[in-house]
């Protein structure tokens, strides 16, 4: 009871919506499970893990990596952009949440088009699963924010610290994506050990900053759903980072053992 009371200092009261309450649990559990599966070696088939199960590759419809990534992010971006029309003039906090989600996915679309260099394919079933996750989570987060209209503000306002975290996360993520894109010269397809930025300490700093970014959005939102989705995303990216570090260790004999998966000096 005391813990619930303490949490309510940071959150809007849970909304009277069975859908949002169910999605809060589903998002947390499904993303955490996906992270655990990554650690066990059962990966979503994109990026380094696109060929994780070659025996089944011919049985699956394949998209080019670039097309697959565009499919992942475009519906969520459109959901964020449409929210300004569907939920207009609902206050500063809602506008910040709408803007942050829309900017996050717009940035990802631009990175797919102009930053990343792709050489492989993505399984259509993995692409559809991730696309639905991004779209539903974005739409649900925006709807949960809409349901806070008329409710008392949380006693502790995390909105402005959230904006700071969001911008640290989005720029840190962009910078490390840029470093990754510079690893390959024209026509090159092979992977290399990343360098620069925080790559000297962790193999997935882009995931670290994405987590920071989503905690920023959660702080701005201060809804139960936003924090549930962000916690689930944290579990998933921890699992994916550990799997990525293991992949680099298996591919490069000279991989520096002091480089952690996600958190410098810790994990």
Automatic annotation (TrEMBL):
<protein>
    <recommendedName>
        <fullName>3-oxo-5-alpha-steroid 4-dehydrogenase C-terminal domain-containing protein</fullName>
    </recommendedName>
</protein>
<feature type="transmembrane region" description="Helical">
    <location>
        <begin position="122"/>
        <end position="143"/>
    </location>
</feature>
<feature type="domain" description="3-oxo-5-alpha-steroid 4-dehydrogenase C-terminal">
    <location>
        <begin position="160"/>
        <end position="267"/>
    </location>
</feature>
<feature type="transmembrane region" description="Helical">
    <location>
        <begin position="67"/>
        <end position="86"/>
    </location>
</feature>
<comment type="similarity">
    <text>Belongs to the steroid 5-alpha reductase family.</text>
</comment>
<keyword id="KW-0812">Transmembrane</keyword>
<dbReference type="GO" id="GO:0016627">
    <property type="term" value="F:oxidoreductase activity, acting on the CH-CH group of donors"/>
</dbReference>
<feature type="transmembrane region" description="Helical">
    <location>
        <begin position="163"/>
        <end position="181"/>
    </location>
</feature>
<dbReference type="InterPro" id="IPR001104">
    <property type="entry name" value="3-oxo-5_a-steroid_4-DH_C"/>
</dbReference>
<feature type="transmembrane region" description="Helical">
    <location>
        <begin position="18"/>
        <end position="36"/>
    </location>
</feature>
<dbReference type="Pfam" id="PF02544">
    <property type="entry name" value="Steroid_dh"/>
</dbReference>
<keyword id="KW-0472">Membrane</keyword>
<keyword id="KW-1133">Transmembrane helix</keyword>
<dbReference type="GO" id="GO:0016020">
    <property type="term" value="C:membrane"/>
</dbReference>
<feature type="transmembrane region" description="Helical">
    <location>
        <begin position="215"/>
        <end position="238"/>
    </location>
</feature>
<feature type="transmembrane region" description="Helical">
    <location>
        <begin position="193"/>
        <end position="209"/>
    </location>
</feature>
<dbReference type="InterPro" id="IPR039357">
    <property type="entry name" value="SRD5A/TECR"/>
</dbReference>
<dbReference type="GO" id="GO:0006629">
    <property type="term" value="P:lipid metabolic process"/>
</dbReference>
């Amino acid at each position: 009871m005391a813990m619930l009371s303490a949490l309510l200092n940071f959150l809007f009261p849970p909304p009277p919506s069975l859908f949002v309450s169910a999605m809060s649990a589903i998002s947390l559990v499904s993303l955490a499970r996906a992270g655990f599966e990554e650690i066990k070696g059962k990966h979503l088939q994109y990026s380094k893990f696109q060929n994780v199960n070659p025996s089944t590759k011919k049985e699956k419809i394949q998209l080019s990596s670039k097309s697959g990534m565009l499919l992942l992010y475009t519906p969520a971006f459109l959901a964020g952009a449409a929210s300004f029309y569907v939920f207009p003039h609902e206050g500063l906090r809602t506008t910040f949440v709408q803007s942050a989600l829309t900017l996050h996915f717009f940035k990802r679309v631009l990175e797919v088009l102009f930053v990343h260099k792709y050489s492989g394919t993505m399984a259509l079933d993995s692409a559809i699963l991730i696309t639905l996750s991004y779209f539903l989570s974005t739409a649900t987060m925006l709807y949960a924010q809409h349901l806070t209209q008329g409710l008392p503000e949380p006693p502790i306002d995390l909105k402005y610290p959230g904006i700071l975290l969001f911008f640290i996360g989005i720029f840190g993520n962009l910078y490390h994506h840029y470093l990754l894109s510079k690893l390959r010269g024209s026509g090159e397809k092979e992977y290399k050990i990343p360098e620069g930025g925080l790559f000297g300490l962790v193999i997935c700093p882009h995931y670290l900053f994405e987590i920071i970014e989503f905690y920023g959005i959660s702080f701005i939102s201060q809804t139960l759903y936003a924090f549930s989705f962000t916690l689930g995303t944290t579990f998933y990216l921890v699992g994916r980072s550990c799997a990525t570090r293991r992949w680099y260790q298996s591919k490069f004999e000279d991989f520096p053992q002091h480089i952690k998966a996600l958190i410098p000096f810790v994990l």
